[in-house]
Amino acid sequence: MRVDRRFLLAVLWLVLLTSGSGSAGNDGLELEALHSAEQLTQEVYAAYAAEQFEDVYRWMAPEIREVMTKKQYTEYQEHHFERLRLALTDIEVSDSDTAERPPRGLRTLIDDAYDAYLTVKVQYTASFYALGSQRTETIDKTVYWAAVYEEPDQVTVYLLWDPEDVLEEESYQ
Q1: d(C-alpha 71, C-alpha 79), whole Å
Q2: For position 73, which CATH number holds?
Q3: Order of strands, edge to edge, in the sheet holding 133-151?
Q4: Cα–Cα distance list, 73 to 64, 102, 106, 137 (Å)
Q5: What is the pLDDT of residues 55-70, one digit of tens each?
Q6: For residue 172, is it within any domain?
Q7: Inter-residue contact 67 to 163 (CB < 8 Å)
Q8: Residue 1, class by beta-carbon neighbours within 10 Å (0-12 exposed, 13-18 middle, 19+ buried)?
Q9: What is the pLDDT of residue 167?
C-alpha cells in the first residue's frame, strides 16, 4: 500500500499544530512556522535531489505558480539535471530565521498578503559535469518561505523560488 506524501504532510501539520500550547498567539505560530519551514526545506531538497520536481513545485507560493507553470518548471529542471548530470547529496538544513520581506528578485511578484517571511539555511554537495570534467562543490543557499497565519493555531507556509531563469530560458531542449 502506497501512502500519499500529501497525506503524511497533512498528518505532520496536524501533529505540529496540535502539539503547541493551544492559543499560542503569533509568537507561537512564528515558532511553528520556523520549525515547519526547516522540515519542509529538508523535504523540498530531498525531492529536488530525487528529481521529483512536481513535489517541489506544489510548495511554491501561488503568485509564483501563476507566472510559471508546473510544466515549465519541471521541464527546466529535467533539462538542467540531465545536461549537467547533476546529483545532490549530503543535504543539511539549519538556522531558520524570520526576514522582514521577500528576497529582492521576488518583491515585485509577491504581494503583502503574508504575515511573515522565513529563511532557512541549506548546504549540500553538488556533483556535476562542466567544461568536460566532473566537479563537486559544496553549495550554501538561503531558502525563503512565506507564512500565513490562517487560524488562531494554524500556519501555512509557501516556498519562494525566483522563476526568472525558467521564464527567461527560451528552450529547454
Answers
A1: 12
A2: 3.10.450.100
A3: 87-99, 116-130, 133-151, 154-160
A4: 11, 20, 16, 24
A5: 999 999 999 999 999 9
A6: no
A7: yes
A8: exposed
A9: 81
DSSP state, residue 163 = -
pLDDT tens figures, 120-153: 999 999 999 988 899 999 999 999 999 888 877 7
pTM given for the model = 0.77
Q: How far apart are CA 18 and CA 20, in angstroms?
A: 5
User: What gap in Å lies between CA 141 and CA 97, rounded to an integer?
Assistant: 14
CA distance 31 to 36: 8
User: How many domains would you assign to the chain?
Assistant: 1
Q: Domain for residue 173, yes or no?
A: no
Closest to 162 (Cα-Cα) out of 76, 92, 94, 79: 76
